[in-house]
């Protein structure tokens, strides 16, 4: 799908008057009515294949109508090496300019998405394969610098075959130049979004295109470093199905989101609303939080073992249940950017009653299929690395972090150990301790061992009334100490795992009461109670500086433990 006028099809038959209105899809070979194809944003109505778009088409589809204002400082590549292949480089450039109407492979400027002012740059594959030479590197860098100077978010639409060989090592240097320019934005808390489209390869993928805060790929796009033909020729191994597609990379944790073209504009507006500090909504009246801080006020007829069974009930609301109930907006992000997307950890930017946060939590499930898909809420190393990645993104964007704890523990197994389970938990604990933004955690179900603590090193730790928190499961404790899990109930009593116990020990700061019968019988009311408690905790922390927040967190955990000094 490469024709600029009808990217999803090649033109074929003609209607009366000689104007070509029919073509064939280059993916499924279906006959396509070209005006319909244009209305479908160059997506084949038969197979859904996304055709390639020129830079102007791309911006016209995504930006608010008539909002684009092109940059006035336009740059062009020259011929520093006097390069000649099948034709002199200046001749190649002149042909590309004539064919596309562009000065080089990037069209940049300002515009609006969902009413939000942004700096934009779109690459056009028709211009020498959108290869990155000096002009492309300069255009992307100037766009990032304009974003840095104005505080407006940067949105990039990327397509490229890689480096521009005709400019030699000067082209290679653009990788460092553009990457540094994007990284500077994070220091200022200015959001950057990279939309990867078909195709994105080579030095562009290995530089600015993949260091943005948010990586969104258009459905079906091919993305990678080396091209598939190069890989097959080098390895002489057949490539797996779907290799280097957006969907393939998403499953392996490399992308936050994959979106169809018709959903891209709305998704970008959502992400910008949640990530851009300039879009922070006015504060709503603070809901009254019903919190219990005195353990003597918690009276229950359940034993500790019975409370644990309630905490483990698969009908109990999950993190996603709570987020969908209590958030005005929530965009789930995916992947650890190096191995996979662990579904036992979910998270992304959210708005809770108008307050923007980064929400992260363990995710179990309500049926066998969901529990298996989410590994019963027990994260692998990639889950904790995803959580830490989102926490660090929250810090760059100055978003408070809110975590929901509900896991039996970290995933055991050969794969988890080989990928560094202990290391990933340690890094998550250390990373949370170092955050310069407020952190609030709430134990909503079962808090098990280091697998729970890895996302619970917070300034304020809350707990639902029927939740549990323990160094080890009672069954495992019984097995280790007694050689059998049969004494698990007695171990539950000995471990002191309930909210009342943990409040008395100072492990948690307050307990959120649950409706009669527990959260499973009134999930909406429970979500409201959690929202009020979290917002109250964030309000208490809101006046602390970055250094004070870190010191507060250090002091909170420094004071835990009971010792007897021997002199």
Q: Describe it for me?
A:
This protein has three domains: 1-51, no CATH class; 52-275, 2-enoyl-CoA Hydratase, Chain A, domain 1, CATH 3.90.226.10; 292-549, 2-enoyl-CoA Hydratase, Chain A, domain 1 (Alpha-Beta Complex). It has 21 helices and 18 strands. The chain has helices at residues 34-39, 55-62, 89-100, 134-150, 168-188, 202-205, 228-235, 246-251, 261-275, 304-312, 319-326, 368-373, 381-396, 414-418, 421-434, 449-453, 474-482, 488-495, 499-505, 523-541, 546-558, and strands at 9-11, 22-25, 31-33, 69-70, 106-113, 116-123, 154-160, 192-200, 214-218, 257-259, 327-330, 345-352, 355-362, 401-407, 439-448, 460-464, 468-470, 510-512. Strands 11, 12, 13, 14, 15, 16, 17 and 18 form an eight-stranded mixed sheet that branches. The chain has a seven-stranded mixed sheet with strand order 4-5-6-7-8-9-10, with helices on both faces. A three-stranded antiparallel sheet has the order 1-2-3. α4 packs parallel to α5 (168-188), α11 packs across α20 and α17 (474-482) packs across α18 (488-495). Mean pLDDT is 91; it is low at 1-7 and 11-18.
């Amino acid at each position: 799908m490469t024709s600029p006028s009808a990217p999803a099809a090649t033109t074929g038959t003609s209607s009366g008057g000689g104007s070509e209105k029919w073509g064939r899809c280059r993916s499924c070979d279906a006959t396509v009515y070209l005006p319909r194809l244009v209305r479908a944003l160059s997506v084949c109505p038969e197979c859904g294949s996304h055709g390639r778009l020129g830079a102007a088409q791309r911006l016209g589809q995504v930006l608010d109508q008539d909002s684009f204002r092109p940059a006035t400082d336009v740059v062009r590549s020259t011929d520093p090496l006097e390069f000649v292949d099948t034709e002199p480089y200046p001749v190649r450039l002149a042909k590309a300019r004539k064919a596309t109407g562009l000065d080089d492979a990037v069209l940049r400027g300002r515009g609006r998405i969902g009413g939000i002012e942004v700096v934009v740059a779109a690459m056009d594959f028709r211009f020498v394969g959108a290869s990155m030479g000096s002009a492309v590197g300069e255009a992307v860098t100037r766009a990032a610098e304009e974003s840095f100077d104005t505080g407006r978010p940067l949105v990039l639409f990327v397509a490229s075959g890689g480096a521009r060989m005709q400019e030699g090592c000067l082209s290679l240097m653009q990788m460092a130049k553009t990457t540094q320019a994007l990284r500077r934005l994070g220091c200022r808390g200015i959001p950057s979004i990279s939309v990867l489209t078909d195709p994105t390869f080579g030095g562009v993928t290995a530089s600015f295109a993949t260091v943005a805060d948010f990586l969104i790929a258009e459905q079906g796009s091919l993305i990678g470093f080396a091209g598939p033909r190069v890989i097959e020729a080098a390895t002489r191994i057949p490539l797996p199905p779907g290799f280097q597609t957006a969907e393939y990379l998403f499953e392996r944790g490399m992308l936050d989101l994959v979106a169809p073209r018709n959903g891209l504009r709305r998704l970008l507006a959502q992400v910008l609303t949640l990530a851009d500090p300039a879009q922070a909504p006015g504060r709503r009246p603070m809901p009254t939080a019903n919190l219990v801080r005195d353990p003597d006020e918690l009276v229950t007829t359940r034993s500790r073992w019975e409370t644990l069974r309630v905490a483990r009930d698969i009908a109990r609301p999950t993190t996603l249940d709570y987020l969908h109930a209590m958030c005005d907006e929530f965009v789930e992000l995916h992947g650890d950017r190096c191995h996979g997307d662990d579904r036992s950890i979910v998270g992304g930017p959210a708005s809770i009653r108008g307050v923007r946060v980064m929400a992260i939590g363990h995710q179990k499930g309500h049926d066998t299929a969901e529990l298996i898909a989410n590994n019963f809420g027990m994260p692998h190393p990639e889950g904790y690395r995803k959580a830490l990645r989102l926490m660090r993104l929250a810090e760059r964007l100055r978003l408070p972090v809110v975590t929901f704890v509900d896991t039996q523990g970290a995933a055991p197994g050969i794969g988890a150990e080989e990928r560094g389970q202990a290391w990933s938990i340690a890094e998550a604990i250390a990373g949370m301790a170092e955050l310069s933004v407020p952190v609030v955690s709430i134990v909503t179900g079962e808090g098990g061992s280091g697998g729970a603590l890895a996302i619970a090193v917070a300034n304020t730790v809350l707990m639902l009334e029927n939740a549990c928190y323990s160094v080890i499961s009672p069954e495992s404790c019984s097995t280790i100490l007694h050689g059998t899990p049969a004494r698990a109930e007695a171990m539950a009593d000995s471990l002191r795992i309930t909210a009342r116990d943990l409040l008395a020990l100072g492990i948690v700061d307050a307990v959120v009461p649950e409706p009669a019968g527990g959260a499973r019988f009134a999930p909406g009311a429970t979500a409201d109670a959690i929202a009020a408690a979290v917002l109250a905790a964030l309000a208490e922390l809101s006046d602390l500086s970055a250094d004070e927040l870190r010191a507060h967190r250090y002091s909170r955990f420094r004071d835990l433990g009971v010792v007897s000094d021997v002199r």
